[in-house]
Amino acid sequence: MWALEALQGDHALTLVTTREVDWDALNAFSGTRVRGDAVAVVRPRWPGLVQGLGPGAAFRRAVNQRQARRVAADHDVVISAYNPVDFGRSAIQLIGDLSWDGPVAARYDAPPPGLRGRLLASRVAHGAYRWVVGRLRAPSGWDVLGRDRVVANSGWVAELMAREHGLRPEVLFPPVPGDFPEVPWERRAHRFVSVGRIAPEKRVERLIAIVAGVRRRGHDVALHLAGPVGRDAYGREIARLAQRSGPWVVLTGPVHGAEKAALLAGSRFGLHGREGEPFGIAVAELVRAGCVPFVPAVGGPAEIVDHAGLTWVDEADAVARIDRMLRAPAALAGARTHLAARAPLFGTAAFVTGVRALVAEALAGRFGAKMKSEGA
Predict the structure, then answer these.
(1) Are residues 254 and 366 in the same domain?
(2) Distances in Å between the alpha carbon of 34 and those of 3, 30, 190?
(3) Separation of alpha carbons 242 and 159, rounded Å
(4) 267 Cβ contact list (under 8 Å, min separation 6)
(5) What's the mean pLDDT when you consider all of the chain?
(6) Is 112 part of a structural domain of the chain?
(7) What tens digit of pLDDT does each residue of 262-297 get?
(8) Is residue 243 domain-shared with residue 131, that is, in the same domain?
């Protein structure tokens, strides 16, 4: 959505997607002002089947890739705003997470509980699924990572791709929208807040365990989990765990816009539990809201906070570091000053400027080659 906003008005835009597009809802969720009349929408020929697949993300990506490849021939510049897409021609690839690289993603994300997890763990079932998806993708033979303009969303992802794939992408931080009210520290609630999906890869149970450990060390802190709690096996597990823990664990449900801004700006601390998070927009939001977030040492969030006292390697280490910080007012004040200096790095302006520059460079290269071939 922010890529579309960056380019609308200056370019004719086409969005290829497997989903139905509700511009009002998307703008409200993303904080954008994309005009529906500025973007042509192309969907697959059988979107109903694709949408009904539930967790079949790889299948949807394959369908989307085939459709995008057909559309790409009629456009001067093509962009994947979410992970590599084989357009069969030169493209801009914005890396959003690690889901496209199964072996690497598996290092950081445990399989989900329930039937889906059992299917993923089954070599036969998962192998059959990958075979079907591979056939559907119909690779063009184009070397996507070797020939396209690949842009990572964090230095951590760029370094990982250098090790795993032999290329070092440039880095463009994702857009982090929203305005956060300025709330004095003494008026903020003595609590931790975590914003995001209640999903296995987010390790929400770990967050509850960490705050429980901090409470055992004598700190009267609460934990607000701001995200949708689904009716799946993991959602039910977290709901039970929160109830058993006591009233200091608050399931707020999903929050957006001014409600989310008020929750973050009204809290002192943040907590993130997923190791190997490619970037961590929720962590950047916490920083911009003036919170002090504690994050795993491995992944993009550690790059966001860039502070050794705020990064941890396991639950016991997290409890110890938080305990030390809460008992040292000078260290806490120093961390807040450090984070305030980093907050301007994470907004929308830099992303918009970066996307416009990428497209301008792609157009210059494409048109330059065309003019040269015509003898201009």
Answers:
(1) no
(2) 10, 10, 38
(3) 37
(4) 188, 189, 191, 192, 193, 224, 289, 291
(5) 89
(6) yes
(7) 999 999 999 999 999 999 999 999 999 999 999 999
(8) no
